[in-house]
Write a structure and sequence with these properties.
single chain, alpha/beta, TIM Barrel, nine-stranded mixed beta sheet, 9 strands, PLC-like_Pdiesterase_TIM-brl
Length: about 300
């Protein structure tokens, strides 16, 4: 009997050891496992919802109603894009031209504020998305950055994208001026594809957190150490296109001390992936969907 019992103990011991070795190997080679273990031992900080151009899945992008709806949906940030008019006023519009989102054609930089403020920036949405069409969207105006700050103040945080800085000279200084005018340094983050523009802003106001937007054409599993070190001289995080990243990328970026805010994540299955991977937040056109995903992942 003693021999049988010793055999059982030996058998159990071997299998426990094998399980430990298996788990150790998975932990060593699987970023997903490492993230989940870290979540259990040290729960993640808040995961942020960034309403991409406002709640732009439901309302015309970069308009006051889109921002109002995003805030009603309890977003953490409203994301918006700024460009300069001909008379150097920061206005909230994504494209370099007004062609796609207004009833006119031409470059933003060629319109004065008076001219651009007369354009209809809402009817296109009703035509393109009839299921979300509203009468109040007809004849919406392109807001100035000043109007957005005046309307929402410190009610919400802002993620502001500097668009095409080569065509918008001095945009960083003008943006900072508006931020300071409304005492919003603690409520604003800036992101851009342009490293040069972010560096210029950092030299003007180092207190505002900056995020480098990147676009990948192919799946990426790792950021080079040299690029990480360069990023950290001016930015606190990186915003990659979601479809080309993965758990390994997120784990490596976060282990390097960078925050990760991928864009643009609109489907709940991808939102679930992003949360599991351990991102710090996502840019989405549907902030209500992501809020629901975060809530479900906390259960």
């Amino acid at each position: 009997m003693q021999k049988i019992q010793n055999s059982r103990i030996y058998f159990i011991g071997i299998h426990v050891l094998l399980l430990i070795l298996l788990f150790t190997s998975l932990y060593a080679y699987s970023p997903w496992i490492r993230i989940k273990v870290k979540e259990i031992i040290m729960p993640a900080d808040k995961v942020y919802t960034i309403a991409h151009r406002g709640a732009s899945g439901y309302a015309p992008e970069n308009t006051i109603p889109a921002f109002e709806l995003a805030i009603d949906m309890k977003t953490d940030y409203i994301e918006l894009d700024i460009q300069l008019t001909k008379d150097h006023v920061p206005v909230v519009i994504h494209d370099g031209t007004v062609n796609r989102t207004t009833n006119a054609k031409g470059y933003v930089k060629d319109f004065t504020l008076e001219q651009i403020s007369k354009l209809d920036a809402g009817s296109w949405f009703n035509e393109q998305y009839p299921m979300f069409a509203r009468d109040k969207y007809v004849d919406l105006r392109i807001p100035t950055l000043k109007e957005v700050f005046e309307r929402f103040g410190k009610e919400v945080d802002y993620m502001i994208e500097i668009k095409d800085p080569t065509s918008n000279s001095n945009i960083e200084a003008l943006l900072n001026e508006e931020i300071l005018n409304y005492d919003l340094s603690a409520h604003v983050a800036i992101h851009s594809f342009s490293e040069a523009s972010l560096r210029r802003f950092h030299s003007i106001n180092p207190a505002v957190p900056l995020y480098q937007i990147v676009w990948y054409d192919f799946p990426v599993y790792k950021i080079s150490e040299s690029y990480v070190n360069r990023l950290k001289t001016y930015a606190v995080g990186i915003s990659p296109n979601f479809q080309k990243i993965n758990a390994a990328y997120v784990a490596q970026a976060k282990n390097s001390g960078l925050k990760v805010f991928p864009y643009t994540v609109n489907y709940q299955v991808n939102m679930d992936k992003a949360v599991i991977w351990g991102v710090d937040g996502v840019h989405t056109n549907f902030p209500d969907r992501f809020s629901e995903v975060i809530k479900n992942n906390k259960r």
